[in-house]
Amino acid sequence: MDEIAAEIHWKSLCLALPPNGVAKTFRTEEECVRRLVEVRFPHGVTCPKCEASEVSPLSTRQFYHCKKCRCQFSARQGTVFERSNLPLRIWFLGTEIAINAHAAKKLRISYSISSVMRRLSVARGTAVRLRTVIADDLLQDRGGILGRCVAFQHIDFPETVESGTFEHLSWLDAAIERRRHL
User: Fold this and answer.
1) Where is the Transposase zinc-ribbon domain (predicted)?
2) Where are the domains of the chain?
C-alpha cells in the first residue's frame, strides 16, 4: 500500500467511526456482542462447521448450538477475538484509539504502549498484543472484522472526486475537520 493509499485507508476508517465515539455507541459488552454477531453473520447466524442455519443460542453462555451437526460455537470463533478473554468493549475502544492515531499520524504520542495501557486499563503485555493484532486486522480489506464492527458510518463521498487520489485525501481531511467542529 503506497503512502496516499494508506492515508486514505486510515482517514476513511476515522470518518466512518460513530460521531459520538465508540464508548457512547457501545456502552455495554452485550451491545458489543450484538454488533459482532451482526458483522460476523450479516444474513443470520450459521454454523461455521457445516454452514447450517438451524442454530439456537445457548442461554447460559454466548454460544450457539448447531441442530444439524451438534457443534457449539461463538461469534468470536474464527476471528481475532477467538482465544482472547478480553471483553469485546476493550477491543472496540482499542480499535478507535488505533484508527484515530493512525489517521492523525500521532502514533508515538497517542498510540504508545503506555498510552494504550493507561487508556484501556490493561497490562503491558496485553497492550502490546492489542496494538499488534488491532493494527494487523485494520489493514485488511474494509478494516477487517474490527473495522467493520466500529467504523460503520456511511461516508457520502462525492462522485466528482476520483477515488485513491490526492483530491480524495484532501476531501477526507476536510470532512474530518468539519466533523470535529460539529
Assistant:
1) 28-71
2) 3-37+85-180
